[in-house]
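Hi there. Long-time user, first ticket. I'm pasting a complex I've been working with (about 508 residues overall). I'd like to know whether the download I got is complete or cut off, because the file seemed smaller than I expected. Thanks.
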Amino acid sequence: MSFKENQEYQTVGNAFSDDPMITCRNVDVFYADKQAIFDVSLDIAKNEVLAMIGPSGCGKSTFLRCLNRMNDTIDICRVSGEITLHNENIHSRETDVVYLRARVGMVFQKPNPFPKSVYENVAYGPRLHGLAETKSDLNEIVESSLRRAGLWKEVKDRLEQAGTGLSGGQQQRLCIARAIAIQPEVILMDEPCSALDPIATSVIEELIDELKQQYSICIVTHSMQQAARVSQRTAYFHLGKLIEIGLTDDIFTHPVHELTEGYITGRFG
Amino acid sequence: MKIQGEGHIFKRFDQEMSHLHSVVLDMGKLAVQQLADANGTLEKADVDAAHQVITNDARLNALDIQADNEITNIIARRQPMAKDLREIIAVGKIVADLERAGDEARKIAGLTIRFFKTSENPPRQEILEDIYALSDFVMEMLTMSMKSFDDLDLALAGNVLNDSLKLDNKLQSTIRRLSTFIMEDARNVGHFVDIVLGIRALERFGGHAKNIAGHIVFIKSGEDVRHAGLEDILARIQA
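Hi, the file is complete. Here it is re-exported in full:
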């Protein structure tokens, strides 16, 4: 089956939620003249994990980066359409991008702790955003964030050691602790386990399951097994288009669109 | 980018699925052959051949285990999704149905031994005609189920489901006809129970063919119709 970039399309499945944290409507993304995302509309619900899957170059990471305006850092990138967080347009002139990125935290493919101590990696954000009035408050935030990231027991005796000295899996959990320390509402994860071994991956996946009690999570992953394990809904992207979105249980057992079927059964990729 | 229809990105996966598919088809042929052979032993009153049919059931059991092992390996190695997942789940159930269909064929061979081992008062072939007719019918049902599996042909699966309704009617009329033999000659009473048990085995054989047709519906549509009414399933197939 062929599927061309300029072809009209309609997303299969219900992309919307009755209780959305983030809403995206008719989102297009261009890198200079090249369109990377085509008319994507979807919601991310409260306390859900939405997995975005698709072949390399399908635009899932580009779309993810729209959600906290990380694409603003790319000069040639232009985003149109409407994206709201709690009914507030994230592209309005009043939006403070630094504050937006605190509310919509991000965890990247490669763990990227600051070249500072474990403690400072987590304390940096709350201090910047004025979330702690006293040193004691800050200590509490650091401890609770590391606990929620499942890292406290492993690092409590070496908080002053460099974050970059931790193992890959620990570094990634440190980055998650850093993201949740500033009390975000949404956490974006861009292939957070691709550099980790299966044990470290399973720890992060357990963590994602716990974190969804408090946050909405949107995860881009190349591992369909991971998408099936951690998410409640799954969105399939192809050539910049949102082809199908639905309950993960449905997408991985009887997808509707043949492109989704072809991708998740390994008929192309 | 490989596109759909060109096969799996791992050729080995296609090979493994294809091999499993052929094992299932072999099981289907063997189950039908077992029932045909069992009928032959009844017709010829050949007790030795009946023992051979019972011995041959081990081949079906071995294929059942082989298929289960292949299924386990594919799941462990490939983590199939969507249609592949549905197919592998359904195949697990199909092989169980085929193995049990073989068990029912074995019961018909058991009748031969029971009726003809001592040769004292064996039943007249006339009384056994219904067993042959029903056997032909359920063998055709299973053959059609396996063709439906091979081609993933929903229409054919629908035909099998329709035939299962016909089978119910045939069973009722068979029991009625057998009753007349008893009324004609009381010496037939001793055979009546055995023949009814044989008919029950054939009913189950046909039931397995019907189950397999339901599994084809699951593979194709993702709908589990095991506990749905026949008319409901047929309506869904037509939709």
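A couple of notes from our side: The mean pLDDT of chain B is 92. The CA atoms of residues 116 and 122 of chain B lie 6 Å apart.
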